[in-house]
Amino acid sequence: MQGDGGLSFLILMILMFVAFYFLIIFPENRRRKKLQQQIDAMKEGDKFITAGGIIATFVSRKDNIIKAKISDNTIVEIGKDFVVSVLSETEGK
Questions:
Q1: Which of 33, 56, 60, 93 stands 20 to 30 A from 82 (CA)?
Q2: Closest C-alpha among 54, 59, 63 to residue 84
Q3: Are residues 34 and 50 in the same domain?
């Protein structure tokens, strides 16, 4: 009868993993894919937020580097992975 306890524990662990996957991993992967699509679709003038909290305006892209305008005379290069949110036209104004 001791084998039944091990089997129940195994089933419980599998159920916990499945719940963890559908509650945490799956939604995060979906959010990450959506953000990646938004970054790839950015065009000149779109606003976005960096991981450092800077709101910038998209200028151009080359490979994984984004050129962004953060003030009238300041253009910086930002790694594509550091964009955390793309603002819609109404949010950015």
A1: 93
A2: 54
A3: no
